[in-house]
Structure to design on (433 residues):
């Protein structure tokens, strides 16, 4: 019997606080599990989710002589290595995937290659099939999500959706009448923001067939009474033709609430009309900064500015759509004055929209991002370098702020907390002291 264990590790110690914790399924792992079960029908495939299981519980469930695939992000990479070590001790074959592994595969193989057999760069379904078929390649690159070749992710075979729905209701009291879950309508983004480490597909952005999206939603509605769909894709408004096709393909008998992501510059009367028809009730909007000069350092499009984000949120509010504004503090040349402007901008947005959910974090120069490359160049000038594949997000913040900002780390973190206090539901990446 071929045992396949796909794991989302628990976050590293100190990074637990987040109102979205354990609310949404690890959909990438579900897609891989669905594909592998089809290709290897006599295998035993399971998903272990560190949003629910502790490190000890996960390591206790590791089976000997198995294939172990681990999804990695910067805040869980230390945990991923601990699980990989435990799996290797049991004679298993270990592969890492996810945004972190995709961003720095060669660095991982250099420093942790003794416990990692394979690093998957990009989308994992076909690379994991290659691994199970015996490839010896240490690094496997797959730049296409192959949407048209894959079945709808089979949540029911690998997870119990109930606890995720219950956690969403528990963590979002005023939305507790909804039964929510997450989907993807597309992957990839046309922007290249300073702080984003997500792997960019070689040929740009990939969109699913609208009928496939609606078939997945129908299944979720019929099996689990899902009526609140959170699209975890980068920004659904980056391709108006796709959004229009998705709207046109909506079956008459399906009308769940949508929670989507959008850049501010793509919000206008045309896209809002399409959002209304799609029954969008909530939009996550990247505001980032309230200072015009600082906002231009993000590479978020030539028209991006605080005025654009304020106008976008005003239009959404007038259309009776809720918003989640997102702020990143510690941008290049950040100062006490620019921090104050961002806080004042957040207050204006609060007054207009009365948002309930908010994201705010100090800038983390994630490995693989433009910010990380800039930081490495500064270190090189100082005769220093990062001789490791393990990065603590909080230490990366400190290294960045000390070199690129005109204000201290502690001041920025106080501003983060000040902005987060404006929301009832908070999303952030920071280490609890």
């Amino acid at each position: 019997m071929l045992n396949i264990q796909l794991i989302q590790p628990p976050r590293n110690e100190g990074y637990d606080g987040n109102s979205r914790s354990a609310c949404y399924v690890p959909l990438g792992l579900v897609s891989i599990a669905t594909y592998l079960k089809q290709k290897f029908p006599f295998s035993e495939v399971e998903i272990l989710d560190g949003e629910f299981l502790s490190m000890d519980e996960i390591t206790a469930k590791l089976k000997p002589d198995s294939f172990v695939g681990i999804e990695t992000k910067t805040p869980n990479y230390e945990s991923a290595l601990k699980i990989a070590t435990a799996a290797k001790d049991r004679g298993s074959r270990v592969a890492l995937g996810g945004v972190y592994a995709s961003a720095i595969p060669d660095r991982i193989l250099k420093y942790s290659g003794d416990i990692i057999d394979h690093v998957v760069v990009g989308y994992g379904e076909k690379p994991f099939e290659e691994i199970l078929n015996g490839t010896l390649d240490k690094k496997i690159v797959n730049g296409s999500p192959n949407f048209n070749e894959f079945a709808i992710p089979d949540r029911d075979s690998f997870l119990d959706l109930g606890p995720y729905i219950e956690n969403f209701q528990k963590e979002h009291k005023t939305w507790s009448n909804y039964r929510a879950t997450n989907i993807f309508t597309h992957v990839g983004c046309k922007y290249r923001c300073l702080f984003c480490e997500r792997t960019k597909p070689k040929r740009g952005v990939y969109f699913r067939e609208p009928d496939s999206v609606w078939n997945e939603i129908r299944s979720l509605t019929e099996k689990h009474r899902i009526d609140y769909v959170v699209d975890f894709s980068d920004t659904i408004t980056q391709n108006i033709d796709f959004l229009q096709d998705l709207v046109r393909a909506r079956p008459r008998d399906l009308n769940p609430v949508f929670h989507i992501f959008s850049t501010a510059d793509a919000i206008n009367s045309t896209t809002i009309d399409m959002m209304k028809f799609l029954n969008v009730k909530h939009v996550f909007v990247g505001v980032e900064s309230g200072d015009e000069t600082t906002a231009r350092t993000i590479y978020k499009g030539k028209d991006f500015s605080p005025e654009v984000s304020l106008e976008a949120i005003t239009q959404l509010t007038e259309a009776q759509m809720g918003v989640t504004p997102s702020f990143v503090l510690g941008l290049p040349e950040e100062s006490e004055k620019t921090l104050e402007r961002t806080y004042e901008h957040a207050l204006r947005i609060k007054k207009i929209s009365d948002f309930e959910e908010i994201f705010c974090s100090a800038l983390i120069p994630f490995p693989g991002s433009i910010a990380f490359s800039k930081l490495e160049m500064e270190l090189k000038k100082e005769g220093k370098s990062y001789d490791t594949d393990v990065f603590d997000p909080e230490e990366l913040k400190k290294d960045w702020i000390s070199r690129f900002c005109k204000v201290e780390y502690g001041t920025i973190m106080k501003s983060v907390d000040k902005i987060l206090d404006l929301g009832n539901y908070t999303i952030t990446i920071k280490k609890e002291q």
About this structure: Residues 336-353 form the longest helix (18 residues). The domain at 3-143 is CATH 3.40.50.280 (Rossmann fold). DSSP finds 17 helices and 15 strands in the chain.
